[in-house]
Amino acid sequence: MNRRRFLGAGVAVLGAGAVGAFAGPATARLLAEARPGRLLSSEVPLPAAFQVPLPVPAVLAPVRSDATADHYEITQQVARLEILPGLRTEAWTYGGTFPGPTLVARSGREVVVRHRNELAVPTVVHLHGGHTPAESDGYPVDLLLPVGSSADRSTWAAHADHTDHADHPTAGMAGMAGMTGMTGAADRSRTVTGERTYAYPCRQRAATLWYHDHRMGFTGPAVWRGLAGFHLVRDEEEDALPLPRGERELPLMLADRSFAADGSFAYPAADQTLAVPGVTEDYMNGVLGDVLLVNGAPWPRAGVDRARYRLRVLNASNTRLYRLELDPQPSGGGALVQIGGDGGLLEQPIAHDAVEIAPAERFDLVVDFSRYPAGTQVRLMNRFGSGRTEEVMRFDVSSRPVRDDSTVPERLCTLERLDPAAAVTTRTFGFRRSRNAGWTINNQPYEPGRALARPALGSTEIWRFFSDVHHPVHVHLNSFQVLSRNGKDPGPYDAGWKDTVDLRPAEAVEVLVRFTDYAGAYMLHCHNLEHEDMAMMADFVVE
To answer: Which residues share a beta bridge with 59?
Structure first.
């Protein structure tokens, strides 16, 4: 696939004449209904739904603790897992499981994680939602080379230098080939071999975070193969609330996958050796799997008491959007009570009949199963899906008598609100397919070390994102607050502190972000992982 065909496919994705500009309101309405991605069908029979119990990822114990920090060790390794019943799937894992083990941290207490790479490829770990110094943030060329690797940085960089692959979909994206040409504040060599220690000060409020691979050009296949896990932060403010806890607090990682005939993960990489980044032409707008996994299990079931449950929902899919809804709905509606988002607790709970969640977003929800008669089977549905992807999992409501002392207070916290008047500047970032360079931000494909913004440490800015097609936008370092959508009020799912915002087709979203604590090079990017891997990223440097 040559450069001309690559850019032509972009026109096909957007609709004729819609690259970078829109014909008018009718086109905008059409694109607003569109959702990204193309379905990749599995080559094995899919199992019946609700046969597998919901697994809950194990909480990782620290190898040691001292007065100020908890220390952990994680080995990145290949494991053969029974994801589909009766089949073994080779996965890339953190600690041998998918999802990886859950880390539970306390606000204000440092978490130190030593990662050992026993895979055959380099990796980069990003704590998504973490308020983290630059050297531990997971900059995409800060490679952790495999144990025993004799290769140096330039050898692995050559794998991403695809300028000689004229028929590859990313041909011509000079920035993605520029791993060795880093300049400015990002000009430093942080490639190490075997092991790397990441230090997270955890100077942030309680929230549902997650960690995943972030290597430039290969985040999509790495996460698809299993490199993702929960990282929960707790604090005294949240602990004081009478929310569900213990066995009635469930992390739910949603991820769609497809499987080859031998049970392996199927992924449409343009180069199956993964020496060159990108996907085949049909999947440039994202990959959709036909198997919905929750905590690594296909369409699982969970037994629940007639009581309130706290569901920490994470969309860890590469591309798939979900509209989550319970079926049947309880009498009176409002089944999904949102108490938190990406950056922690909301000020007040919000009752939803359904929630829409884009890749990398998190929703902290409380569901009161006492609103259902004993014995009710409640399905969690995906109204953006069809066929097998319309069902996610099932909750089976128990008939046993239980006690439930939990409640959802009318006020959850006092939320600090950023002041738009304090913003020192407004910056605009256009997420769109360029006629000349593929997926871009401000018409530029990613080049490490080239900063599109240089905010001052301690300052507040307004960042305006606009789109052609659908792009979930993630900002590293600091959470932000959504100020407006298309010049109007924020949407129904924009409340509280966020680090990922669902940017719909032909839409403009303004956010307020304050840059605190740490200087250095960070990133903003699309979290459609196929878009990200095909250059829709940018650096910003806090000075």
So the answer is: 102
